[in-house]
Amino acid sequence: MRIAQVVSAFGIHSVLIWTAVLLKKRIVIVGETVEQVVPVVRVLPQMVWARQNWSILRPLVTPSDAE
To answer: What are the DSSP calls for the chain, one per residue?
Structure first.
């Protein structure tokens, strides 16, 4: 997935995502499958060139039934 695809998928909300990445805020990406979520997560550091730190990405965590 490329940045242009993420921007077209999120539309005007991509500005909020860009601002959050720029300000080092936490972003939660939720999807039906891992195959939907991982490409979007990999694009987030690319939205702000100065944030090319891949260590900020967190692993997939699935909630328990209680959550």
So the answer is: --HHHHHHHHTTHHHHHHHHHHTT-------SSHHHHHHHHHHGGGGSGGG--GGG--------TT-
